[in-house]
Write a structure and sequence with these properties.
- This protein has 327 residues and is α/β, with parallel strands linked by helices.
- It has a single domain, classed as TIM Barrel, CATH 3.20.20.
- Helices cover 30% and strands 17% of the residues.
- A hairpin with a 4-residue loop joins strand 10 and strand 11.
- The protein is globular, with a radius of gyration of 19 Å.
Length: 327
Amino acid sequence: MPLTDAHGRRLDTLRVSVTDRCNLRCVYCMPAEGTEPVSHDAVLRYEEIELLVRVAAREGVRRVRLTGGEPLVRRGLDRLVRLLAQVPGLNDLAMTTNGQLLAEWAAPLRAAGLRRVNLSLDSLRSDRYGQLTRGGDLGRVWEGIAAAEAAGLQPIKINVVLLRGVNSDETRAFARLAQQRALHVRFLEFMPIGSGVRWQHADCVPSGESRRELEALGGLQPLGRAPGATSETFTWPGAEGTVGLISPLSACFCGDCSRLRVSADGKLRPCLLRDGSVDVRAALRGPRPERAVREALRAAAAAKPRAHGTREPAYAGPASGMSAIGG
């Protein structure tokens, strides 16, 4: 029987954080000094992740995305990809990365079975990119994109978190990138995640505002939003790529959310923007792990809320940062 939550939504997507560690300190994700890392023993081993995904696939999960932190800072990630690529039932195996190490890993990961990548890239200006990431090298991102193209990791999606007064003036520049190259740019609203990161509603650029910027370029064609997808997608006549608007705050898409997340230390989270989790690490390391993992998945599905509730007066957001939760 497919994994279904209490609201009738079929859950077929699992996002797996392989590490909480990162080689950058993006201003909207982590404090400058970083965060206390999860202990080595607490992090799920590759064989445990493989077992979790194998059981999840039997329960109807069809898409897996590897996240972090930054997944490429964990050693031997191609070994995990090879394990997961052999799991029966999976239709998609993807990864989200900041691109700093992608140039050297794109070909080995594609050979191991990775299908596509999402890159976090919040500015096309080298100086601004360095400031936003607190030390990232924009040139390495472009090298990573070129390596991903050469390796056949397609489609390549670029995630842009828009911050008012910081990078919101680059919306049209990113759109032109999608017009000229086979890259799929997605603009994300800044979300209230992490007690250690400053967040104010005024910093968020609503997707309606971003859409007006895109429409100003002329000829914008809506492609809609697929069921369970996060992005409302657009293109232009003759464009090689697309642009998308991800609107978790201004146009909540919780109604057909199909995702569960597991953190690097084995906390299975029903919702990105709410606290609350199921301990799947204990299930993996206890007796009869396959049965226990199946029960943990069903418990997380049962606990999945109807919506994230960011518009509720008392909403405070999850205490953990994105690097700990896994995007």
